[in-house]
Amino acid sequence: MDVEDAVRQRKSIRAFKPDPVPREKLRSILEQALRAPSWANTQPWEFVVVAGEQLHEIQKAYLERGGQEPQPEIPRPYEFPEPYLSRREGLTPRCLEPAAEYVEYRRVQNPQNYGTPAVIYILVDRSMFHQSKGINVWSAYDCGSAVQNIMLLATSYGLGTVAQAQAVVYPDIVRKVADIPVEKLIAIGVAIGYPDWENPANQRRSQREPLDKVVTWRGFK
After folding, report:
1. Is residue 68 in some structural domain?
2. What long-range pairs does 215-218 form, CB within 8 A, spacing at least 24?
3. Least confident of 25-29, 103-107, 186-190
4. I want to staple 118 with a disulfide (CB 3.0 to 4.6 A). Which of 2, 51, 75, 98 is the partner?
């Protein structure tokens, strides 16, 4: 699969098969993802890959804590001004009706990582993010580049992914189970596994704004 195919085919998967992903396949994806660009080649990312009983322990603890106020270590958006609010898709894809059923599906499955057999947690050192003159947002941007590499590579390997803010809303749980040092911020989780294409949740594809609406050309004839 070439890069263009991977970009076109990648989508957020919200239903996975339980089949485990071989460690060597995940290792290959992460090794290549390290080619992501970063500020002055600082490479601020680190990864913790969790599967099996440890992932089940995290998921169980998330369910038990469900409904409590999220406590992410990397701030989430506080609001969505226009036009960004209008771009947010509702929780009801056309293939899943009625709406209440899909809302309940997301409520239950999101903390369970949509049934994935593995989650890649992306970490960034606190000293790289919280600095004396303020927050170094570029470290998070760099980590995002690595995450995109992971998702595109996974697509080329026949796997699916979904980048989940929900996976890190209770970082204390993840930190305890996965034995992550307090010096490392848990930025985001990427659920990765084999997509369940029979599940209606995977039948949708989100839309993008037309290119001419978001690009301005200067200096071209």
Report:
1. yes
2. none
3. 103-107
4. 51
